[in-house]
Amino acid sequence: MRCIAVINQKGGCGKTTISMNLAACLAAQGNRTLLVDMDPQNHCAVGLAVPEEQIDHNIYDVLISAHAENKIPLKNIVWQIAQNFDLAPSGIELAALEPQLSGKDRREDCLRDVMMNEATGYDYVIIDCPPSVGLITFNALRAANEVLIPVETGYFALHGLTRQLETLKVLEQQCSQKISIRVLASMYDVRTKLAREVLSELRKNHSADMLKAVINFNTKLKEAASFGQPITEYDPSSKGMKDFMALADELTESAETEVQIQSVETQLMAISKSANELLNESNRLIGAKPPVKELKENSIQSKIDNFYGVKQLNESIHFVALYPKAEEVAIAGDFNNWVPETKLKAIGQTGKWACELPLSSGTYQYRYVVDGRWQQDPYNASITTNEFGEYNSLLEVK
Ligand SMILES: Nc1ncnc2c1ncn2[C@@H]1O[C@H](COP(=O)(O)OP(=O)(O)OP(=O)(O)O)[C@@H](O)[C@H]1O
Ligand SMILES: [Mg+2]
Predict the structure, then answer these.
(1) N or C: which terminus of the chain carries fewer CB neighbours within 10 A?
(2) How far is the CA of 68 from the centre of ligand 2 (A)?
(3) Environment class of residue 373 by beta-carbon count within 10 Å: exposed (0-12), middle (13-18) or buried (19+)?
(4) Is the Cβ–Cβ distance between 126 and 25 less than 8 Å?
(5) Which of 130, 120, 118 is nearest to 91 (CA)?
(6) Distance from residue 17's CA to the centre of ligand 1 (Å)
(7) If you average pLDDT over residues 192-221, what whole number do you get?
(8) Average pLDDT score, the chain
């Protein structure tokens, strides 16, 4: 069984689109494939038309019981999407995995143990990760023997790559297994000169770490997800389908040629060097100031652009959440008497919502109200149980 984790801390770089459609194409080629959604936002279920209200148990239940006597078996949560194609859906509860397992032995091995014992019937397991680093991503990394890092081929995306590599370095220190890490160009727009130059530089200098397949920007991929279908069903004649079939072919062939796997550290150094070189090169191309200076000048905005969750920046608390399909997102907490009248603002067409509150020092509880539905902040692992047996998100202001 090959287990491939799709990881990048940067939000919106195409992880879920790649995970869903790669899994669908591997399945269409006759491989028994399981897609595991490790993002509490449960976007795979939404993108594959699994009715969220009918999901009784999800990957959280399997993971939380993985080392307990009364295990919830993987097969009990799996939904069949197509022939050879199964989904282990996620749920908002997954955001609570880290606090729930705090202090428990081998908490980072829950997914690996489940995969090794219960997913042996699959040829491929694809793991879609959240855009954050913590116990969930670490579980995915431990379970995987390969990592795909989707990278947008635009200028700002390269900052994301450098940051992601720093994260992987931290994870690598705790993770002794050998893993193959490869970069996949995602949302590639051939019409922009910069994207073309970035891709050609990447290919020229670092072909060993770079997959030959490229995922082009293709609106059919966006549409497919909004119709709840993988591209194999929505439009098999599309460019998006061709890209994913080529990716599936390349991955299948690479298993046969048995790529020499170097240590994670060596691979990371090579990819990191490539990211830095590319940043310098793209600065030169667009005549920009050095990226570090630019980031400093615009630091609050750039920080907001690059995180989800809650963060104290200067005197304010910034709340950022991703709800691409929501029409209204409000926040309610003990700072506004739990009245959801404080609205988050949509940030352009990004699907992100944000607001800024001037809170004084103290500990606060809050929840989001998304189109009338109350829920915890999926990007804040700090939670507490409320009187209804649900989770409130916790926030400490210093
Ligand atoms: N190749 C592509 N062509 C067109 N649209 C794309 C492509 N890849 C992703 N998108 C769109 O970009 C948005 C973000 O993609 P996606 O949800 O796959 O990113 P993600 O990395 O999983 O995000 P998150 O970090 O929030 O989980 C979605 O609206 C998706 O439909
Ligand atoms: Mg995603």
Answers:
(1) C
(2) 29
(3) exposed
(4) no
(5) 130
(6) 5
(7) 80
(8) 83
User: Is 2.60.40.10 the CATH number for 304-397?
Assistant: yes
What single DSSP character describes residue 159?
Answer: H
- Report which secondary-structure segment, H or E, holds 347: strand 345-347
Express each pLDDT in 283-328 by its tens digit. 554 444 443 433 333 455 555 566 778 888 878 899 988 787 789 9
Which is nearest to 94 in space by CA: 53, 49, 38? 38
Ligand 1 atom closest to residue 215's alpha carbon, by position in its atom list: 1
Q: What is the pLDDT of residues 81-127, one digit of tens each?
A: 999 999 999 998 898 888 888 888 889 899 999 999 999 999 999 99
pTM: 0.71
Question: Distance from the CA of 77 to the center of ligand 1, in angstroms?
Answer: 25
Q: Spell 307-322 as b/e; 16+ CB within 10 A means b.
A: bbbbbeeeeebbbbbb
CATH no. of 2-282? 3.40.50.300
pLDDT of 269 > 70? The answer is no
| Residue boundaries of the structural domains of the chain | 2-282, 304-397
Q: Could you identify the residue written with the tokens 């770089």? A: 13
Q: Which one, of 185, 249, 251, 254, lies nearest residue 214 by Cα?
A: 185
Q: Which atom of ligand 1 lies closest to the CA of 217?
A: 3
